[in-house]
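Morning run. Coffee first, then this:
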Amino acid sequence: MPLALAGVRRILEMMDWGEDEPGSFIRLGSISAADVADDDDVFILIAPQHITGHSIQPSLVAMCEAAGTRPVIIINGRLTEVPSANNVMSVRGRQERLEFVATFQQVYHFRCRFPLPPAFVRH
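And here it is:
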């Protein structure tokens, strides 16, 4: 998770959800197939992104496969290429990454004073 959003999960955990405490109405987890439960209806992923030397793509693909036909919503995702340690773009698996990102469609774009990536959903 980007440093700017590092505390978001903690804030969500501390929120007063009323009768719908986390675990009954909403469940907090990670981007992985292991965190997909049969009774989950929608998956909302906040700011998934690649980091130098590691791709979020395998975990995201596995989660989407486990979710099946249930919606996966990405808010402020940054799924573009990240330069390698030598400041060279990684070409290995690039086409597969681009094809996977293309399976999402943009449904809304947040406008702020500074540029943010759009929100996407996969059906």
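The first strand starts at residue 43 and ends at 46. Good start to the day.
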